[in-house]
Amino acid sequence: MAKLNQIIAVEKGIKSRVYGEITELHKVNQKPALFSGFAKDYHPIDDAGEALPPERQRVQYRANEILQKLAVLSTELMDVTARKDWTNCQATADVSVDGNVLIPAVPVTYLLFLEKQLTDLRTFVGELPLLDEADDWSLDDNSGLQRTPEIKTHRTKKLQRPVVLYDATPEHPAQTQLITEDVLAGYWHQTKLSGAMPRPKQRALAERVERLLQAVKQAREAANSVDETATPEIGARVFDYLYE
């Protein structure tokens, strides 16, 4: 009695080979000339007439033989797939994490689906935006956002004022020049806000996803180790009916 994982391994090879051979049968069906032939013999009207050799074209394929070959190939595929699917109905395993059963008696087909979902989730979690660790962040309960302490910075503006280069004399007016100065205008009070995730929280989530994914893989292997279930001969029943 085979194990489910053994049937699955065999099924892959059978599928590849059978589909390839059936494809070739389809190609033959699309060439009607391969199913046709003839035999020609020449008979002169009298003994003095010219003798010509006979002509022949052999029939290369017979429709009934094609159908029989199709039945053999399809039966092989139908039966191995039936063995897998009938056994799948009995193939279940518990998903256990840290010794605790998280999901009991999960069908192997669902375990395969769940494994794919968790693999995608692992990628998604790994791509989450993270808080810049150069800043100090804390959760604002009112907004649900992360925020930094307020930082105060000054703002300046440029002002021009005249500077006397030479004082006025009885003979000449004073000479002045405009210079530009930066003067304090006010203060910025800045608080950074973010909806990104703290790195420790993201790392903890990623670790939990990975533990669950490994648990699902182990459950899938356990479910695939179930003994084969007896199955009916599907192919024979199908083609006995079709070719009756």
How does this structure look, described?
By secondary structure, this protein is α+β, with helices and mostly antiparallel strands. Among the domains are: 1-91 and 228-244; 150-190, no CATH class. It has helices spanning 4-29, 63-88, 108-126, 199-223, 234-242, and strands at 38-40, 55-57, 92-97, 100-107, 138-139, 146-147, 151-166, 175-190, 193-194. The protein has a 3-stranded antiparallel β-sheet, with no helix packed on it. It has a two-stranded antiparallel sheet with strand order 1-2. A hairpin with a 6-residue loop joins β5 and β6. The mean pLDDT is 93.
Structural class: alpha+beta
**Mean pLDDT across all residues, rounded?**
93
Helix content: 40-55%
Strand content: 15-25%
Quick recap:
The protein is an alpha+beta fold and 244 residues long.
Topology:
Layout: H1 4-29, E1 38-40, E2 55-57, H2 63-88, E3 92-97, E4 100-107, H3 108-126, E5 138-139, E6 146-147, E7 151-166, E8 175-190, E9 193-194, H4 199-223, H5 234-242
Antiparallel strand pairs: 1-2, 3-4, 5-6, 6-9, 7-8
Features:
244 residues; alpha+beta; 5 helices
